[in-house]
Amino acid sequence: MRRQWAGYLAGAVVAGVLCVLQAGCERHAGEPPPIPGAETGEALFLRLCSGCHPGGRNVKYPAKSLDRMTLAANGVNKPRDIVNILRNPGPGMPLFDRARLSDREAEAVASYVFTTFK
User: Fold this and answer.
1) What is the pLDDT of residue 34?
2) N- to C-terminal Cα distance for the chain?
3) What average pLDDT does the structure give for the chain?
């Protein structure tokens, strides 16, 4: 009986992790409020973007991953271009307006993406 419960518990944990990962792609009203104080670009990316962009990949649209070559192929050649995408996203990506992500935070995320995923 104990093993059976352990199996159920393990299944529940896996299901919970999958739900969290999928929720990261569709995070809107249920998104946790910003943490007070300045966050690094990495922390913001991990909190807001990594659900759909784990390790710089794009789980919905692989042709739009975040590595430098793919970004350049999509007309993204500098961090400011990433900020523009955050403010005016394409299909499948949530809007990161100034109420959700300040200009400074958007620039921090953009710099992190541009320097991390080469």
Assistant:
1) 53
2) 50
3) 80
CATH of domain 2-116: 1.10.760.10
Write down how long the chain is. Answer: 118
| Half-sphere exposure at residue 69, Cβ-oriented, CA atoms within 13 angstroms | 2
Non-local (6+) Cβ contacts of 118 within 8 A are 67, 68
| Rounded Cα–Cα distance for residues 115 and 107 (Å) | 12
- Note the pTM of the prediction, 2 decimals: 0.69
Going from the C-alpha of 109 to that of each of 5, 8, 102, 118, the distances in angstroms are 42, 38, 11, 15
Q: How far apart are CA 50 and CA 16, in angstroms?
A: 17
Spans of all domains in the chain: 2-116
For residue 41, CA distances in Å to 12, 14, 106, 107 come to: 32, 28, 8, 8
Whether 37 has a pLDDT exceeding 60, the answer reads no
